[in-house]
Amino acid sequence: MSTLIVYFSFDGNTKFIAEKIAETLNADIIELKTSKKYPTEGFLKYFCGGKSVIFGEKPKLTNTSIDLNRYETIVIGTPVWAGSYTPPIKSFIRQYKIQGKQIALFASHGGNGAEKCFAKLKEALPGNKFIGETAYVEPKKNPEDSSSKAVRWASDILAV
Ligand SMILES: Cc1cc2nc3c(=O)[nH]c(=O)nc-3n(C[C@H](O)[C@H](O)[C@H](O)COP(=O)(O)O)c2cc1C
To answer: Residue 144 C-alpha to ligand 1 middle, in angstroms?
Structure first.
């Protein structure tokens, strides 16, 4: 079963988990990148990121084209922003017609909004089969626990 991990990460938490999952599944991994730059500090970081979610922005991805035909399973990872998934993930969903895949979702967050984020992702990805979802609270602050949780979760997905 060929699996692709696709993720966006602003501060490295989602990246940390994505890399663990990819390593466990021996899967391909792609970090989404955009030409749009969000402020990295202070009030503006939250304001601009949050606004981008609320306005439904789809920033242009700078990744080279991804051939999804090669994969049966796609694992999508995102930080929770304003109770939702991040704009680059929205761009990815809009750019690629994702149909008939097995999809697993994971998110990093600060304490709330992961369920809403997953519900919105599922709504945005009709025509696919969801095989798992899991959320991590600031995983880089607790690397050992988060990393063993990621390894267990990834092994469970593979067992589906
Ligand atoms: C613009 C913005 C909005 C955020 N909104 C939420 C939120 O609604 N709920 C939450 O629990 N954390 C929120 N966070 C915190 C991040 O989800 C959290 O720090 C996450 O671990 C970051 O992942 P990353 O390091 O991969 O970027 C927000 C962070 C930013 C920058």
So the answer is: 20
- Which ligand 1 atom sits closest to the C-alpha of 80? 17
Q: State in Å: Cα 100 to ligand 1 middle.
A: 30
Residues (pLDDT < 50) of the chain are: none
φ, ψ of residue 123 to 5 degrees: the values are -65, -35
Q: Confirm whether pTM is higher than 0.70.
A: yes
Q: How close is the Cα of 5 to the center of ligand 1, in Å?
A: 20
Token pair for 130: 């969801």
Cα separation values, 92 from 102, 137, 151, Å: 16, 24, 25
Q: Please, what is the end-to-end C-alpha distance for the chain in angstroms?
A: 10
| List of domains in the chain | 3-159 (3.40.50.360)
Per-residue pLDDT reduced to its tens digit, 117-134: 999 999 999 999 999 999
